[in-house]
Amino acid sequence: MHEHWSLDPTIAFLNHGSYGACPHVVLEAQARLRAELEREPVRFFQERLEPLLDEARAALGTFLGARPDDLAFVPNATTGVNTVLASVARDLAPGDELLTTDHEYAACANALARWAERAGARVVVAHVPFPSRGDDEVLDAILRCVTPRTRLALVDHVTSPTALVLPIARIVAELAARGVEVLVDGAHAPGMVALDVQALGAAYYTGNCHKWLCAPKGAAFLWVRADRQARLEPLVTSHGRSARRCDRSRFRLEADWTGTSDPTPYLSVPEAIGFVGSLLPGGWDEVRKRNRATAVRVRASLTETLGTEPACPESMLGSMASILLPHDLAGDPPSRGEACFEFHQALFDRFAIEVPVHPSPDGTRSVLRISAHLHNRASDYARLAEALVGMRSRAPAA
Questions:
Q1: How far is CA 225 from the centre of its chain?
Q2: Are residues 13 and 151 in the same domain?
């Protein structure tokens, strides 16, 4: 499978989760779209773009289990999160609360703090234990932090720093029962886990297409439940706000045009869905199962080799897995991150292994996160195991 990607064959690329990787076929499709745009930009933007966006949304909607008209393309999930928070912040009062967890992606946690500060609200952070013992522990940690002032919860579907697949359907249902709307940060979910966004019942769901779907960089989506669309505005106000058309919703008119930009990442999403899904006989179901099986197998092998405990039950794994590194290998404690950065850099400089290493949410452990996609080779993981064993043997005695 590796030949379908442009990845450097000399590097063990075990960090698909950070920025994804786009296959040759998809990049070629994007290049054709960009060439068409540049041949006649005016006609492309004024006549071609709208129907092409409709086609792309239709393909993505089918993949996600979502009505196309409830979807808006955005450059990344962080933009999706900020778009929702900017709109929600208008209705916040001083003392209101926004809930999240200590596993939230740093950029989105920063956005939450920014918009809460502007409204005089406060951010409540639920401590989700890590290593995790299972779904009930996660749910209990979140629900303990709900108060009568909780207005919105920002919750990961798949945590970025710790690679946990959270019980998002249960979380959404329990929070809804307490009158709390949920913005799901699904940055890693599309292509990693099966999705039915409509059935999930959250108020908002945002996810990336450039990660596990393997679309070009700059392709993501924001799904907004129909009853919340009238209050949602894009971060950039443009011509759609004053449009007098009646054939499209206000949400559609404002979200689809926020100024001149390169729309080809969005328009290439159908190609990515179709191509990656064609690589295995069972389509996307088999792609997801194979990637997860690889992550499960490699995690088991590495934890046994290093003598560390699993960071979570297998039921909480998708296409990524966290490996708790022994204290004598990656520094103790790693709370400020310097030891993790140095360890990550050593793996790349000495062994040509690209894999992230960072502190656990409580800052007491170093965590190495592996990714598994079709382009990964058995030799990539073997190289990592050999490097870890070799680095440990040369580590100074405690």
A1: 19
A2: no
